Amino acid sequence: MQIQYCLLLLLFFACNRPQPTADASRLPDEVDYNFHIRPILSDKCFTCHGPDANKREAGLRLDIGDSAFKALQETPGAFAFVRGKPHLSEVYKRITTEDTSLRMPPVNSNLQLTEREIRLIEKWIKQGAQYKPHWAFVPPKAVKPPGDEDDKWPRNEIDRFILEAMDNAGLRPNEEADREHLLKRAALDITGLPPTLEMMDRFLADTRPDAYERMVDTLLAMPQYGEKMAVHWMDVARYADSHGYQDDGYRSMWPWRDWVIHAFNTNMPYNRFVTWQLAGDLLPGATREQLLASGFNRNHKITEEGGVIDEEYRVEYVSDRTNTFGKAFLGVTIECAKCHDHKYDPFSQEEYYKLYAFFNNIKEVGLESVIGGPETYAKKPFMEISNEEVKDVLNFINKPDTNRLIVSVMGDQDTVRTTYILERGVYDAHGREVTAGTPRSILSFSNRQDRLGLAEWLFSPKNPLTARVFVNRMWQEVFGKGIVKTSGDFGMQGELPSHPELLDWLAVDFMRHGWDIKRLMKQMVTSATYRQSAVASKKKLAADPDNTWLSCAPRQRLTAELARDLVLSSSGLLVKKIGGPSVKPYQPKGLWELATSGRGELARYVQDHGESLYRRGLYTFIKRTVPPPSHLIFDGSNRDQCEVKRTSTNTPLQALVMLNDPQVLEASRVLAATLLKEKTDPVETAFRRIVCRKPNEKELALLKSYYSEQQQYFRSKPADAAKLLSQGEYPLPEKADKPAIAALMQVVTTIYNLEETLSKT
């Protein structure tokens, strides 16, 4: 085992490749309030002169233009800002004075403006000190992509924006990645699976100039594309297979998940995809598919515990739908206005409950039924799906049996339920009555006052957020982080976009081309920006350690589901069946029993067998109170609430999973047995199947030496070989050479644990 550990370290450093922000001491030609001044004021001034009235000093508020230009209360005749005249502006005088008793920020605050920040404020004042609405609340406008048409590096418009930002930062793009790395990267981003040996060989042999574009088209047409896209959408929709809270009973929402996969594979336009989920039940002559799509709104947690107050939990469900709408589609923290006016963004508490009113009319209760039995698989309102519908109308649903199948969907009351502002957010503290509406700072509302009207408002060409938020999240999925890093917060406290013109160009282009998701994905993965090598020079690492300017391809660790999928796919164990009920693969014993009330169908974890053990990570059963441990260890969402971005951590537990999880060990054993039957070099083929490239001479020699050592060991210790090969339920071949399989299994496990294996480079 010590040899294996050393081997892992050696290969880690042999395969590991690093990543590159830029020095920008030169002042911009035009100083912009949103992108240059507000971040300074927010960091250094708003604590005492911002939106919090309880902490505001001297009656001065600098986050609102009208206030900033008023005469100062404590200094008669003085003004914080005087347009065009920094030396008459009290703010400028205070930030440049040598008198520490007058200097701002105060010395005891431990805050200090840099020389560049002072120069920016000075230039902004000289240019007129213009306050602007928050950039994200202004509708995007497509500007002409910068650069010379004769530039050779750009492959599409994306690259022109990226190249200009690189040039401004003193950086140059990397060379294009070699074909093996490029294919692995594209296959993982588009299908979530590594390329097969056949795909690798075909792509390497294709000498046509458009070979890569052809391969991208092939990947986009595969049914696995819909599965990969659905992984992110399950986080957004807070999908789970149980209700949540302590009793945490079973929930049959998986047919809705089948619909999501189907929608992505048929390239349903984003505006229709979301409209059906928000208000499919309200569409004229709503079809069964449209009704099923509306299940998006019912994925929230639901209690089944006796003794709870019915109205309290019904209000909680409505709040969840409201908060999800804000984060998922608008990219704003609207939930902050549930109890009081938003502290930073221009959303009042009244506007929160106007938005809440759209989701407050559903025929539901806070507590329904008791634990156990098919009637609790879905909560009213629900739709029952018959076998005939599965054969004809809803043929994308993978229904494996004849059991009753019911799914929670949307359905409004015949009369409108009155909505009140809830004082401090308390369910029974009714304040003023309000009607359905939206935040005025985003876009005024003049549509029909139901969820269908809300969907129309969401996809209005004048809505500044919808397209921006989605293209940013797709950029995040492809490049590792969004153009707006805080992809769930486009508000005042969120990060500024690294490439604002590119974000707006993508948003407008996406709308102009019919909200076409596959087209958007193809634009990104065929760009020269995407095709770059991930190798970063020392210069780039020093100048741009976070790779903000994308002068090399980003390195990203695979998500929890994709790490599992890579292991199963490369070993040949993966069952590629699309859709169907969630499955329960291997997991440590006793977890469920310790964490819940001990009642109901999900009191104990009953592991599945056969092909259910080898389904994609998308289909792993998610119990909210006890999510799959390997899923959580690799930063998967527990689906308690809408999540648009996962964290990425490093912990020894991740190595523990990859070295000891029965699924990994079983996959290693099965692949080893398969390779020993083939007429190829088993070590080289294993490396290609897992890492998706040919090993170099040093790597191959090291692995073969290890293989030889392990063969000697297991031939002298046959009992150890037999014990190692007992992992997993997949049968061993008859008359197997157990020492040889065990030895190659150790090699395969080592390859699975390489940093490069678990990374998209």
Descriptive tags:
761 residues, mainly alpha, two-stranded antiparallel ribbon, two-stranded antiparallel sheet, 2% strand
List the helices and strands and how they pair.
Layout: H1 2-15, H2 33-44, H3 46-49, H4 65-68, H5 90-96, H6 115-126, H7 157-168, H8 179-190, H9 197-205, H10 211-221, H11 224-236, H12 254-265, H13 270-279, H14 288-293, H15 310-330, H16 349-357, E1 382-384, H17 387-391, E2 406-408, E3 419-422, E4 430-434, H18 451-458, H19 466-479, H20 500-512, H21 517-525, H22 528-531, H23 538-543, E5 556-557, H24 560-571, H25 591-595, H26 629-633, H27 652-660, H28 662-677, H29 682-691, H30 697-716, H31 718-724, H32 738-752, E6 759-760
Antiparallel strand pairs: 1-2, 3-4, 5-6
Helix pairs in contact: 1-30, 2-6, 8-10, 11-12, 13-18, 19-20, 19-21, 24-28, 28-29, 28-32, 29-32, 30-32, 31-32
In words, what does this structure look like?
The protein has 761 residues and is mainly alpha-helical. Among the domains are: 119 residues, no CATH class; 99 residues, no CATH class; 235 residues, no CATH class. The protein has 32 helices and six strands. The strands form three sheets. The chain has a two-stranded antiparallel sheet with strand order 1-2. A hairpin with a 7-residue loop joins β3 and β4. α8 packs parallel to α10. About 3% of the residues have low confidence.
Helix-strand category: mainly alpha
Mean pLDDT: 93
Q: Point out poorly predicted stretches.
A: 5-24
* Adjacency order of strands in the biggest sheet: 1-2
Distance between the termini: 28 Å
- Number of helical segments with 4 or more residues: 32
The biggest sheet amounts to:
2 strands, antiparallel
Percent of sequence in beta strands:
under 5%
- Radius of gyration, whole Å: 29 Å
Task: Please give the share of residues in helix.
Answer: 40-55%
The best one-word shape is globular
